[in-house]
Amino acid sequence: MNLFFSFSALVILILLAVIGVEAVKLEFLFGVIIPYVAIAFFLIGIIYKVIYWARSPVPFRITTTAGQQKSLPWIKNSKLESPNTTLGVIGRMLLEVLLFRSLFRNTKAELKKGPKLVYGSSRYLWLAALAFHWAFLIIVLRHFRYFSEPIPAFVPFLQNLDGFLQIGLPILYITNVLIVVALTYLFFRRLFDPKLKYFSLASDYFPLLLLLGIALTGILMRYFTKVDIVSVKEMAVGLFSFQPVVPEGIGVMFYLHLFLVSVLLAYFPFSKLMHFAGVFLSPTRNLANNNRMKRHVNPWNAPVRIHTYEEYEDEFRDVMKASGLPLEKE
Amino acid sequence: MYDSGKIIIGIIIFIALFTFPTWYLFTSGEAAPMPDLVYPENEDQKECVYSAEYMRASHMDLLNEWRDIVVREGKRTFTTTAGKKFEMSMTNTCLGCHSNKAQFCDQCHNYLEVNPYCWDCHVDPSQLENQ
Ligand code: HEM
Whole-structure pTM over 0.95, yes or no? Predict the structure, then answer.
């Protein structure tokens, strides 16, 4: 059901763009208005979400048991897994963001004959996730050849690295293979494991299918149904410098690609893809484990009226002195 | 909002990165110069191998096809679907008409940072004259 819903949503979106551009000739709508609206949704949505999250107090350091915390000097502590300094937290965050450290610890529970419950490490999810995210990043960075003039130096650098196998013409990019293989694995992973399939929602399938759609339309455009890329750049530069132009005859495949990207951008703040901002706000990742070194006061504690012994003595000094009780201050 | 300093810095970095294409275009000066193509002048060179629309998007596929036919099958004459015949040679045929590579091929390629490695081996005649 969830899968059916996601798949039909994608098919409807594709038909919408193809009919809109091919039959109704709405190039301006699909090439200019929808991308601008999508970017507005993306920026405002993300800022709203992040500020909304930041309004939840995190009064106490949530520590994880991944590493030995700092305690006595002769007990070796784990500086990256359980950091107690800001530098350590930054290190842990970098490991998490760049290498998905906590996904690497992923385990898998399996019911074997016996019946016996077996836990094992499962690195494939980590590997596919890492491959997908890095391929995606490199592809987006390579896309700066459409958005910028003069083209920044990292673009030719990445193109040479990515096309270093020099297979075919236009040269095959390694990231194009990686992104499709990784997304396909991540998608079928949910289908072939009954447990995973049981709790996969439309919001799990849809982003994967959408990203696969974006990657496949891009690949089709580069290697099979060609588009006029000079006009694409004219249009992209126009979009980003707020002087939109719609050149003639680019080809539907481009509008389809752009429309799916717009859908991704607009859907982003409402989706699980927000983990890109959420990872930075995860209390188990961004708080130093210094519960034992620093006092953390709960911000919503009601103020407690306290009466210290010094104040008590001040109040009753004369009486206490008269009855011969010992005093701290004379 | 808690930790507002850090949150705001984070949001600013995010916006700056996401809008990079826009402020890069505005700070890099003039609008992007479109490719300025010089077409063949001679009367007998007024038509490309295929239509200009097809060539613009798919010339690399044609070159790839030519390369395969020449190197693997040893044939050197190409007949287009319209029945015209061309010698399959990048230097003699393509650059025979588009004699100024810098004012034609490179115009588009620089605009889009395309760096065909073909010229490592193949000859661009205009480069020879310069030397
Ligand atoms: C989420 C963002 C995007 C993703 C993941 C994506 C993905 C891809 C992929 C995988 C390709 C195949 C070729 C390559 O890797 O270079 C491609 C090609 C292409 N993309 Fe995108 N794309 C994105 C956004 C855009 C945008 C905003 C534009 C609008 C200018 C665009 C225009 C193109 C064009 C014109 C091609 C054809 C490239 C060629 O023939 O060399 N893409 N895209």
Answer: no
